Amino acid sequence: MVRFLLARPIAVLMTFLALMVFSVIVFRTLPISLLPPIDVPQIVVKVNYPNASPEAIEQNVLSPIREGLMTLNGLEDMESKSGSELGTIRLTFDFGTKMELAYIDVNEKIDRMTNSLPSDLSRPQVIRINTNDIPVVRVQVVPKPGFDFTEISLLTENVLKKRLEQLEGVSLVDINGKKDRIITVSPNKSALRALGMSEENVINAIKFGNEELPGISVEDGQFRYYLRLATRVDSPSDIMKLPVTSEEGVTIDLGRVADVQYEINDVLGYHLFGENEGLVITVHKQASAKMNELLPKVYEAIDIFREDYPQVDFELTQDQSVLLNAGISNLQTSLLFGGLFAFGVLFVFMGNYRTPVIIGISLPTSLLISFLVFYFFDISINVISLSGLALGLGMLIDNSIIVLDNITRKRKDGLPLFEACVEGVNEVMSALISSVLTTLAVFIPLVFLSGISGALFFDQAVSVAAILGVSLMVAFIFLPMLYQFFFRRKREKPVTDEDSRFFLGILRGYKSLYKKIFSQRKLSFGIFLLLIPVGLGMAYLLETSGLPPIEKFDAVVSLDWNEPIGVEQNKDRVMSLLNSLEGAYLKSESDLGVRQFLLFDGESSLQEASLYFLFDNQEEKTGQMQKLRSLVIKNFPNAQLDISDAPNAFDQLFASNMPYYEVRWKDLETKKPIEESRMDVWLEEFPVEEFSRGPGLQKEASVIFRLDGGKLALYGISTSDLQEQVKRLFGMYSIMDIKRFGEITPIRLKSNRANFEEILRNNYLTGKDGNEYALSNFIRFDYENHYKFVTADKGGIYQSVLLESDNPSSSNSVISRWAADRNLGVSFFGQYFKDKETIQELIGILLVAVLLLYFILSAQFESFVQPLIVIFTLPLGIAGAFIVLLLTGTSLNVMSAIGLVVMLGIMVNDAILKIDTINRLKIKYSQSLGSQEALERSLFEAGEIRLKPILMTSVTTILALLPVVFSSGLGADLQRPLVFSVIGGLTIGTFTALYFVPLAYWFVGRGEKRETRIET
């Protein structure tokens, strides 16, 4: 096949050129994003129920919704949490569930149960979670002094949002911090009382004055007209002209008995940029959009906004394209330095410029054609797929070096140029195919990991398979064709000067050390075997983490004041904290109280705040955050404070709401939360000391109104009248909405804001005898501590504690006895169990990978023993990587693990080629020599033949990665653990391939114990 293709160089060249043209076209159409568009198998149902307690939301809203959603296909878990005015249900599905259909199914079921939910409840909001929901950038909109905030809110909602949504690639624009305008009606109660009227007369007048006739039409000859009432109101002045009539027939303009005006609706949340109040717009991209093309459009749009709307300041923050640009720059750096160092190393080793040029052409060719595979597998260009390409680049250089070196060796043996190309490729073809298959045997099984990890590995596995597959095609066809082209003028000359003096010196040193090691074979082999457990044992000394510790100059502070304060007090407290930092930060933004984001799937309350800070350097960040923590602890001892690095897209993707280890129990008798007084006593007897209360046991102070039914009956006052009066007095009572052209302006009845005790004393209800009685006669109140949240799962309401010990499962038996003594059904839940399941799954997958590796090598070597030599080289490489990680103080994390895979792929490649060469030489020499002498000579000569490609591959890879060690920035921080793993593993791995493989082969393959002098 190779001979056939190389005999037609023009056809091969045209084929590769056509592939590259198609690849360029495809590359321009591939979506570029930060992460693969993964459907996170979760849906969140949010309920907003003003003035409702956690118990009321659980009983009247969440419980029936949970029952209705119980039959969803693929539903794995269901968690609900109800707080004051807000409830959430988080649905978790089996990974692989079609989330588009699940989303439609959830909405349909909620629509069906709408009639069984409270009539004054707005429709529950259904939020589907996707990696594309992570905003790519945040736009700060800050009104300049003197401009109306509500007007800026309308500008943001109706103009800025729509202009950003029109940008190509934008899927959604979300807003927080808006202030809506409403019309308030404040009745003059003394005037109403004097005229024999009540608030009900005012309310009815407004309702009648804004009625619409539903589809009524009249005929006028041959024409038909639809009727519209001319009394429809549009503004406060229209409302004040409406007539109010008493039961005695007295009529007066509404403006005489009530004050009507525009006001800002009750503010439940604020957004601050620095210390200035403003709005924030989050921009979300489409799955098929290119992030590196979308962000410049957003920046350009903001520049236009600055010119068009000088009354507003604009700023862009938290640009998520930084990570993607870091990944792209890392790939570019790898290509650049890989090419430069490959050229330099090959020149040093080979002594000619043609071979490096050939590799320089093959690298970008392979990379470009790989994007065709991306297109057919519907893979986007993202950080994960780019890392897969970066992994394959090392193997790609390796394959190119091996093929070129073997062709050169065949020319040294006297073969003509064409025959040398054919024989050189054919000789290493099976070994290279086996090495690629062994690398894929490690990657492909990882696709079957459950959850998001498996989905992410799919992109990486496809990209690795793509570049390795293409690299084989390039190495077997394109490289020998280029070799023919570059060396065609040397066709008739014998090749004797391809090795440089530098390499000849290394060769002499290799032979000398080889003799010394083989003179003490058993001792040397024992030392190698001893290194395996010692090196692997260093894993216990390494710290473990998820992502490597990236030097981040930004931080997020999550605050829960844990006191029944309003959002205004929340804002004052946050402002005091910002003032105390005295502008030590570059940028800050804060979201206080209830969030208005459509896609916000978390929980927010009036007492919560989230602050983001960007600092100039790490020292400043550490110092200011410590200062902030001490200020909060000193001034607000009840507050719960959490300071962390600002999450990037990876953190948000892998973030879990699941606690580490949670002990849950349910009251088997009442199916309700256990009373606070009983629960406090039981928790004192809890058998574990280190625990914290779960959400269902957290408390908050509340005021409880109790109605005196006896007095209400005595004075002839109905309970419904009393409840209606309480609704009007405490908060904004909604009369109706003015709707025009999509804009809705609520009309609210406004009451005097005062202490609730004063309100109860100064407001009255009319009894059956016509006299007025103060509300305080019928309402008693108490201050009580009540549960802040009511939590539930598929089985119903539960309460829980969170364990914080290193080995939490050791207490399961005593906790179970504690629960059984109190007639509680107990269960254990948390990330602890998920991690154990993932580790077990990973161990199983790695065992499958090792078996695949063994099967492939057995087929390649036609031996059951020789594959064990390759497998035993791997722990030595891992040991070398662990030593370097330990010396540099680097943790064992995702990036260092990827580095291990890269290093092992190159090590396996070298070991396979070494054994393959030994096998071929052994067959060759066994025809003329005895078996033992043939073995000795094959081991020595194979080492000499493979010395150059092994050294060139290792040195090229190490030098190409070395600049990352001395670089700074986000990209370098991410890649540095990978580099340390590769450098450490290849340093030991190269020595292993040169000396351990022949030693192990000698112990495995010797037939007769006979001393033979090594021939030089």
Automatic annotation (TrEMBL):
<protein>
    <submittedName>
        <fullName>Multidrug efflux pump subunit AcrB</fullName>
    </submittedName>
</protein>
<feature type="transmembrane region" description="Helical">
    <location>
        <begin position="331"/>
        <end position="350"/>
    </location>
</feature>
<feature type="transmembrane region" description="Helical">
    <location>
        <begin position="436"/>
        <end position="458"/>
    </location>
</feature>
<keyword id="KW-0472">Membrane</keyword>
<feature type="transmembrane region" description="Helical">
    <location>
        <begin position="523"/>
        <end position="542"/>
    </location>
</feature>
<dbReference type="InterPro" id="IPR027463">
    <property type="entry name" value="AcrB_DN_DC_subdom"/>
</dbReference>
<feature type="transmembrane region" description="Helical">
    <location>
        <begin position="12"/>
        <end position="30"/>
    </location>
</feature>
<keyword id="KW-1133">Transmembrane helix</keyword>
<feature type="transmembrane region" description="Helical">
    <location>
        <begin position="868"/>
        <end position="888"/>
    </location>
</feature>
<feature type="transmembrane region" description="Helical">
    <location>
        <begin position="894"/>
        <end position="913"/>
    </location>
</feature>
<dbReference type="InterPro" id="IPR001036">
    <property type="entry name" value="Acrflvin-R"/>
</dbReference>
<feature type="transmembrane region" description="Helical">
    <location>
        <begin position="950"/>
        <end position="972"/>
    </location>
</feature>
<feature type="transmembrane region" description="Helical">
    <location>
        <begin position="464"/>
        <end position="483"/>
    </location>
</feature>
<dbReference type="Pfam" id="PF00873">
    <property type="entry name" value="ACR_tran"/>
</dbReference>
<dbReference type="GO" id="GO:0005886">
    <property type="term" value="C:plasma membrane"/>
</dbReference>
<feature type="transmembrane region" description="Helical">
    <location>
        <begin position="383"/>
        <end position="404"/>
    </location>
</feature>
<keyword id="KW-0812">Transmembrane</keyword>
<feature type="transmembrane region" description="Helical">
    <location>
        <begin position="357"/>
        <end position="377"/>
    </location>
</feature>
<dbReference type="GO" id="GO:0042910">
    <property type="term" value="F:xenobiotic transmembrane transporter activity"/>
</dbReference>
<feature type="transmembrane region" description="Helical">
    <location>
        <begin position="978"/>
        <end position="1004"/>
    </location>
</feature>
<feature type="transmembrane region" description="Helical">
    <location>
        <begin position="842"/>
        <end position="861"/>
    </location>
</feature>
